[in-house]
Every structure is written in C-alpha cells, then in structure tokens.
Design brief:
The complex is a heterodimer of chains A (114) and B (113). Chain A is built from no helices and twelve strands. Chain A starts with a strand and ends with a strand. In chain A, strand 8 and strand 9 form a beta hairpin. Chain A is an all-beta fold and 114 residues long. In chain A, the strands form three sheets. In chain A, strands 2, 5, 6, 10, 11 and 12 form a six-stranded mixed sheet that branches. Chain A has a four-stranded antiparallel sheet with strand order 3-9-8-7, with no helix packed on it. Chain B is an all-beta fold and 113 residues long. Chain B has no helices and eleven strands. In chain B, strand 7 and strand 8 form a beta hairpin. The radius of gyration of chain B is 13 Å and the shape is globular. Chain B starts with a strand and ends with a strand. Classes of the chains: A mainly beta (114), B mainly beta (113). Chains A and B meet through strand 6 of A and strand 4 and strand 5 of B.
C-alpha cells in the first residue's frame, strides 16, 4: 500500500533560520506530490505541487520542494522562516494514472519563535 | 467565491446521538471527500465520491455513512456517535485525477461526550 512518511513531527526554529521538512513515500510508480499547510485554526491550503518536469518546484510564500526520485523524497524548504510560518505541514502523494486518492503524511508541526 | 463550505463548524454530541455534517462546493467538482484529522495521525479518508449518486469507502469508514444526491453536496452521517469519533472533520473536493490537488473546507470540530 502506498504510504507517506514525515519523520519530523515537531520542529522549532527561530526567525530567519532555514527550514527543511522531510517527506518520503513508498510507491514505486509515477506519482504526483503535494505539500499542504494548515495555519492554526484554519483549513488546509496547497503550498506547492509536482507532476513532472523540473524536480525543483517553487510554491507560495517562498517555499520550494525538491523531488528526488532515487530517494523517493519530496522535501520542503524555505531559506528564511518567519513567525507567520508557524503551522502544520502535510506532505501528500498520489499516483499519476487514473483516479487515485490523495494519501497524506502525519504532518509536521512547525513553531517559529520571534 | 465560496469554494467548499462545511456546516456546522462546531458540535457537541452525546454518545448514541446522530447527526449529519454538510459539505457544499460551488466549483462544479466531480470528486468529493470526507477526512478526519486527529493529533499525530494526519488526515485519514473516511468516504469519498467520484460523482453524483456514487460513494465509496475510504480508510476509516466504520461508523459513518455518506450520500451524494446532488453534485454540489456531500453529506456525512453519524448514526450513533461514539467518543472515538471526536475529531475534526474536513471535506474536500477536486476536479478529478488528483494532479489538481484538493480544495478543503474550514472543518467541523465534533466532540462526543
């Protein structure tokens, strides 16, 4: 079965620090990859997505992610975090053929201290 | 431009009571989904629908029923609520194949006492 692993459950950073959140998936075929963000008390919003092409994907609010097929990874990065980035971040994966449901990781809770 | 609207936003139920959560989308999406979100477990799919009149079980369907009588609405029912169903419930919709990503509603926080 397809699964998604986010090994960092809680991350605490100071403002201006760099961020990298890990995401690994288990499915071996062609996949679509997503990162969602959930700010406190709000619903999930799409940060960025990868379908094909350039493995370095740029999203909103200065976030980017790199797809490394050989490592089955899609890590999220931001060079300099802000207090407003405090949120929970979810990686999600689905197959690229036909209708396949989105499978979410368990999430990483990021706290940025001012 | 409402997107996905969930009602109610909060609810407290007693064990054994029933209720229905409503999800409405105005984007003409074919696919709709119900998830529950619990601490440390991420989002788990309860049921989903690939079009009007269709429903299918997700990862954690027990204790829930759904209906999709109209394309824009997807209802989630709890016939006899249990404390284990205390959770935050999110509805989502999408055009089709998941390459487009999902649009989520704002959630319903349900407490079963």
């Amino acid at each position: 079965a397809q699964s998604v692993s986010q090994h960092n459950h809680h991350v605490i950073l100071s403002e201006a620090a760099s961020l990298e959140l890990g995401c690994n998936y288990s499915y071996g075929g062609t996949v679509n990859l997503f990162w969602y963000v959930q700010y406190p008390g709000q619903h999930l919003q799409l940060l960025l997505k990868y379908f094909s092409g350039d493995p370095l994907v740029k999203g909103i609010k200065g976030f980017e992610a790199e797809f490394i097929k050989s490592k089955f990874s899609f890590n999220l990065r931001k060079p300099s975090v802000q207090w407003s980035d405090t949120a929970e971040y979810f990686c999600a994966v689905t197959r690229n053929t036909g209708f396949q449901k989105l499978v979410f990781g368990t999430g990483t809770r990021l706290l940025v201290s001012p | 431009n409402a997107g996905v609207t969930q009602t109610p936003k909060f609810r407290v139920l007693k064990t054994g009571q029933s209720m229905t959560l409503l999800c409405a989308q105005d984007m003409n999406h074919e696919y709709m989904y119900w998830y529950r979100q619990d601490p440390g477990m991420g989002l788990r799919l309860i049921h989903y629908s690939v079009g009007e009149g269709t429903t299918a079980k997700g990862e954690v369907p027990d204790g829930y029923n759904v209906s999709r009588l109209k394309k824009q609405n997807f209802l989630l029912g709890l016939e006899s609520a249990a404390p284990s169903q205390t959770s935050v419930y999110f509805c989502a919709s999408s055009y089709g194949a998941d390459r487009y990503g999902y649009t989520f509603g704002s959630g319903t926080r349900l407490t079963v006492v």
